[in-house]
Queue: 2 jobs
Job 1
Amino acid sequence: MLQTLRKYSDIILSFSIKRFEQAGSSLRLRMEIDLADGSKLYVRETVMRGMKRKYAYHWQDSAGRLLIRWDNAPDWDVESFPHHKHVAEQDRVEASYERTLSQVPDVVRSKISNQ
């Protein structure tokens, strides 16, 4: 994970791990990442018994408005089910192919660079 965060040091100002628990092949991670443009990325990952993985990556601007949230809660019928993203609005849902902490920062970097 630290290697992934270092790869994006051009856009990541700092990060803090709010919770990390591991028991055998299960783990829970909660993290906040401060980004160069003043926005934040909130990371939530849970792995249960090394098999079932739940995640949410919530990116919001400096005013707390949702930019994009990626998650795999099975609550939307999209092409990439259950993986999807909420874009700018809670009800605007799209298919998502970014599913890990190593993929999401590429999108963030691209959007920050184009501002």
Job 2
Amino acid sequence: MSGRPVKRSLTLSGHRTSVSLEDEFWQAFRDMAQARGLGLNELAVEIDAARGADCGLATAIRLAVLRHYQAALAARD
């Protein structure tokens, strides 16, 4: 576990942007995209479109990952 955010580039609707997430969140984000049959950039576009103006993209991704895994746990119960 690194704990330190790692900056990576994403392309949102043709525009490059950088996002800093911890390695564990990057992996969970990749797993989430794969589970939904989407590319990482496609999922990032969805999350970006749904986030509020007061929420940064990195935070929105972390929250989407959290919700994804919470829903998976709830489905098991």
